[in-house]
Amino acid sequence: xxxxxxxxxxxxxxxxxxxxxxxxxxxxxxxxxxxxxxxxxxxxxxxxxxxxxxxxxxxxxxxxxxxxxxxx
Length: 72
Known about the structure:
The protein is 33% helix and 17% strand. By secondary structure, the chain is an alpha+beta fold.
């Protein structure tokens, strides 16, 4: 997806206790709801040893790509 393909620091996968930042999509069945929220994918994130600002920047860029793709 456009969200995952452009990530620079986060790699795809589940954490086994390593030092790298990883992310994996998960789509559990809806068991709870929140009024006014949009349905979407659940992301499991493991933050590694990269700087917080760099990780946040990588996520912000990914969400911006996703918003841009949805607007098109």
